[in-house]
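P.,

For your records, the input lines for the assembly:
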Amino acid sequence: MRRPRSTIAFTILAWCCALAIAFPLLWTLLTSFKSELEAISFPPKFLHFSWTLANYRDVLSEGDYPTALYNSLAISIGSSAFALMLAVPAAWAMAFAPSRHTRFLMLWMLSTKMLPPVGALIPIFLFYRDWGLLDTQLGVIVLLTVGNLPIAVWMLYSNFKEVPVEILEAGRMDGASLWQEILVILTPLALPGLASTFFLIFTLAWNESFWTLNVTSTEAAPLTAFISSFSSPQGLFWAKLSAASMLSIAPVVVIGWLCQRQLVRGLTFGAVK
Amino acid sequence: MTASTVSGSPGRSHLRLSGRLLVAPALIMLLVTSILPFIVTVRFSLIDYRLLGPKEHVFIGLTNYTRLLTDPAFLPALGNSLLLIAQVLAISIGLGLGIALLLERVVVGRGLLRILVVSPFFVMPPVAALLWKNLLMAPVSGFFAWIASLFGLQAFDWFARAPLSSIALIVAWQWLPFACLILLTSLQSFDREQREAAELDGASPFAIFRYLVLPYLARPIAIVVMMETIFLLSVFAEIFVTTGGGRASSNLAFLVYSQVMFQYDIGAASAAGLVAVLFANILAYFLVRAVGRSLDA
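C-alpha cells returned:
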C-alpha cells in the first residue's frame, strides 16, 4: 500500500500552500511588533528583533483610529440591522406566502447586485451633497443596507424554507398574529440562519470600500478609509501600518474563522452546501 | 413553488395580502435606489454638466458618449476591466482547485488548514493592497525583493513594470479562499464509490480527474466565476491605494471616479458609468447562460 506515504506527502504540500497563502498576514503580524527601523531592515528580520507594542500604542492613542473604529462599528451594525429588519419580513413572505411573482422578484433583487455601484455613484454623490448626507454615518448606512439587502433576503429565504410550515400554521390556528408568528415562532427556529446572515452582511459592510472611500472624508470615515490614508507618502510607516492593519481586520477575520462554512454557503445562496 | 402549503389553509387571501405588504418595504427600497440613480445617470449623460463650469446644463445629445469613446483613457480602462477579471479568475480558480484537491486528502490538522487558507477572504481590500504593496512588493526592501536577492536576481519593480498584473495578484489572493472553499466543499460531497470503482478498473489518477472530478466541478466553478465577476467588476480600493489610477491600471470603475474627482465632468462620468453598467449586463448575460447550462447538465 502506497497510500499512507502519498497522504503524508500531500499533507506536507498542503501545509506549505496554506502557510504561503496566510503568509502576508503572518508577516504583517510579525512586522507590527517591530520598530520602524527593523521593519524596513534588509535582509528582513524574522524572529530575532526586539519585540515591541509601541506601534499598537501609537495607533490606539492617535485620535483617528478610535473614531474610525467607532464609525466602522456603527456603519456595519447599523446597516446589517436595517437590512435584517427589511429582509426578515420579505423573506417570510417569499417563503410562506409566495405569489406568482415571487420567483421573478427574487431574481430581480439579485440582479441589482450585478449592477456595478459606479453606475449609481454620480447621482448618489450629488444627492448626498445637496441633502447634507456626504460624510455622515446615516448616508453610508443607507447605501450599505441597500447593497446587502438582496443577499440577506436570499440567505434568509433559503433558511426559512427549512422551517416546517406546519409549526407556523399551528401557531396561526392558535390565533397568533402575523408579528407574533414571525417574531415569536419563526425567529427562534431560524436563529442560526439569522445569525450567519447577520455575520455575512456585517463582514461585507465592514470591508466595503467603494462607497466608504467615495462618500466619507473625515467625520464618518470608517476603518477602510482610515487605512487607505496610509497610502499617502507621509503615512508610510511599515510597522505602524501593520499594527493598524491588524487592528482593522482582527474582528472580521475571527468572525470569518468561526463561521466560514455558513459564509461561503451564504455567498453562493445555498447553491453549494 | 409551494402553492400546496398555502392552499387549503384558512385566510388564503389574507395571507397573500400580508405577503405583499411584507415584501413591499424591501422592494421599494431596492427599486428606488437602483432605478432612480439609473434614470438620473441617463439624464446627466445627455447634458453638458461640469461641476466647475457654468450652471446651464445644456442638452448635448450623445456628445458625452462620443467624447468618452474617443477619450484615449477609455479603451485601456475597458481592456483593464476585462484583463483584471480574467487574470484574477485564472489565478484564483487554478490555484484554488489545486489547493482544494490537496486539502481533500489531508488528515492532519484539516481545521487549522482551512482557517489559514480562508483568512485572506476577510481582509478588507485597502489593507490587502497596502500590505502587498509595501511589505511584500516594495522594490527596495520588500519581502519579494529579499527572495530575489537570495537567488542573486534584481528585485522586480512590481507597480512600475506590471501595475495591472500586480493589482490582479492582490485581488486574486483575496478571492482564492472563496474559490478554494467552494471547490473543496463540492469535492467532499463527490461520490467516493464512483471514484473507487474507477480506480479498481485501473483508471489513472489523471483520467479520474479529467473524466470524473472535473465534470462534477463544472457547476461549482461556474458559480465561482459568476460570483467573483460580480464583485471584480467594481474593484476600486486596490487601485486607489496602490497606483492611484493611471492608464495602465484604471478599470471602468476607477475611470468614472477620476472623471468626477479630478475633472469634475459629471456628463462624461455618467456616460462612462452607463457604459460600465451595459458592460456588466453583457457579461452577466453570458455568465447566467453558462451557469444555466451547467445546471441542466
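Two observations worth noting. Chain A has a mean pLDDT of 89. Chain A has one domain: 53-270.

Regards
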